[in-house]
Amino acid sequence: MIQSLIAILDLGSTENAAIARAVRAQGVYSEIFAHDTAPEALKAVPGLCGIIINGGENRVVDGVSIDVDPGVYRLGVPVINVDHTSPDHAADLPAWPEDPSGVIDSFLDKCSAQRNWNMDNFIADQVELLKRQIGSRKVLLALSGGVDSSVVAALIIKAVGDQLTCVHVNHGLLRKGEPEQVVKVFREQMGANLVYVDAVDRFLDKLAGVSDPEQKRKIIGAEFIRVFEEEARKLDGIELLGQGTIYPDIIESGTKTAKMVKSHHNVGGLPEDLKFELVEPLKMLFKDEVRACGKALGLPDDMVYRQPFPGPGLGVRCLGAITRERLEIVRESDAILREEFRLAGLQGKVWQYFTVVPDFTSTGVRNHARSMEYPVIIRAVNTVDAMTATVEPVHWDLLMKITDRIVNEVPGCNRVLYDMSPKPFATIEWE
Ligand code: XMP
Question: What stretch of H or E contains 370?
Answer without folding.
Answer: strand 369-382
